[in-house]
Amino acid sequence: MESLNSLMDGFGTALTPVNLLWAAVGVLLGTAIGVLPGIGPAMAVALLLPVTYGLEPTGAFIMFAGIYYGAMFGGSTTSILLNTPGESAAVVAAMEGHPMAKAGRGAQALAAAAIGHFTGGMIGTMLLVVLAPTVASLAVDIGAPDYFALMVLAFIAVTSVLGSSRIRGVASLLIGLTLGLVGLDQLTGQQRLTFGSLQLADGIDVVIVAVGLFAIGEALWVAAHLRRTAGRPVPVGRPWLGREDLRRTWKPWLRGPFLGFPFGAIPAGGAEIPTFLSYVTEKRLSKHGDQFGKGAIEGVAGPESAASASAAGTLVSMLTLGLPTTAVAAVMLAAFQQYGIQPGPLLFEREPELVWGLIASLFVGMVLLLALNLPLAPVWAKLLRIPRPYLYAGILFFAAVGAYAVGGEALDLVVLLVVGLLGLGMRRYGLPVLPAVIGVILGPAAEQQLRRALQISDGSVTGLVNTPFSVTVYAVVLLLLLWPLLRKAVTRRRTAA
Amino acid sequence: MTTNPKGRLRAPSELGVGALLFLLGVLVLTDALTLDVEVTARGPVGPATVPLLVGCGLLVVAVLLALDVLHGGRGEAEGGEDVDLDAPADWRTVLLLVGVFLGFAVLIGPLGFPVSGALLFWGAAYALGSRHPARDPLIAAVLSLLTYGVFDRLLGVPLPGGPLMGVL
């Protein structure tokens, strides 16, 4: 009940005309950027970060929430009309959505996706309202060793759950941790990896790393391999659903969130796994199973709803534990750090106006998203025709604006370019980018918790595992690490039997 | 190991990734070992501990990656909406873009954002293959002025106006 009252206060914050305006601007900008081919939600959020610099934190995060949901919806539009998913979560949307678009049912596919996003986001955010304060109050008592264990879990999960090669994931993580080391040591003020440079003593700004790896790295990588003939988007009219379609989609919409939300909250790669699980579930439950692969509307509705709910799940661990589980959450955490706000169990006590305003604006943002995107879909579809040279020149342009806006220094632009070239190299050799970003953002915090924990235990390593919570987390870590071996053993037994 | 010419060409270049990681590890370790630990150490874990761990980790990963490559493991180049992996890499475009970007970093101070930003967009679009003598610079100028106006005036994010804004 208490959280319901807080939520009402949050609506008071979110529904002021100014904040409503920021939410609307965020949704529009997020959708517009997310629709652009080649730009996934993480890059959209990183590129739009500087837009919020001049705002006070509450307005900034309200706008941010709009950008997040808008970019996710924009990404599915691209998948459906162009068959080119910008990020892994939208792969599933393309599998059924694009055949539908080609068969002249693009309007229905977009409507199923939009309403799926709305339903999934609504249910997911309601679960967030119910669960987040509970998680936060449970987490208030956890100490340095527990935090360190959680961060180790995030590191291991991001390197071993995602991507095809663990060793390349670990390499990426270590690169990120190294970048995070640059600057003054937080406890003793000693210079590390600064090579005597005054600018580097401040450390490398997380925003510059995120923009460099996501935006510059991607733009340069595409430039090296630019497709000379861009894909042709399928033209589309105003989205709508007939009665028959509604009968087929309402259950997938409602089922999706219960797969999406839990997977979003744990460090397991965000929407990738739940969208796929939802797809498989809908395929099995559908009476039109034979249509799957050729444009079954259930295969758009369920996964899109799951993806949206997983975004809400991501926010639970991000807000209550300060633990980013996806690339977007990592960039959002960086945004919090810009304002000197540390997400964690105390956030709900210290910044109730900000947190509940943010959560309430998620509801507002979703209503705006649905109201704006159904009528505007044909306009968004036009954005898919943007000439590629302008698109990638624009990405470089706005990345430069963002990096310069951080501190007003031309040197930051050079650092951005170097990080971007690193991102280019990582894409070339199959090193995933996300572990590096997580390493930069969580590395310094993990070091602090480690040193704090060992200070309390006076240097004894047992100080890291002296709580039931941390032991449990390490058990999960061990399970993740041994999973490939376990799976091999299981399949071997099965083939033997 | 594969015998096709592409495979033979790629193995050495990917070994370079391992070599770079190794060098990075050595760099981190040397930096950590030259830290002045004794004077300011507070608590049992000083400022050098984590860099030492990261540095050793880098060395181990470098070796493991090299072994993986020698056993035929290959990093999967990232695909994407506008990425055509079958075509050979076009490094000339990348170099041009890097040059344009560095030019922007140099010029933003003396020329201000509106002019240097327009040059950045125009130059990047040209490098990426756009050849419209009138449309390209026009879009660049409008985009740059608009961005300056929105960020500097509306959103309160300061960008340098430069001599152009002094005149206008």
UniProtKB/TrEMBL annotation, chain A:
Signal peptide interval: none
Keyword annotations: Membrane, Transmembrane, Transmembrane helix
Positions of transmembrane segments: 20-49, 61-82, 109-132, 144-163, 169-188, 200-224, 311-333, 354-377, 389-422, 429-446, 466-486
Superkingdom as given in the UniProt entry: Bacteria
UniProt keyword annotation of Membrane present: yes
Domain DUF112: 20-437
Pfam short name (any one): TctA
InterPro entries tied to this protein: DUF112_TM
Full protein name: Tripartite tricarboxylate transporter TctA
Organism name: Streptomyces hydrogenans
From TrEMBL, chain B:
Membrane-spanning segments: 48-67, 94-125
One family name in Pfam for this protein: TctB
Keyword Transmembrane: yes
Domain DUF1468: residue ranges: 17-160
Keywords per UniProt: Membrane, Transmembrane, Transmembrane helix
The protein's name in its UniProt record: DUF1468 domain-containing protein
Lineage of producing organism: Bacteria, Bacillati, Actinomycetota, Actinomycetes, Kitasatosporales
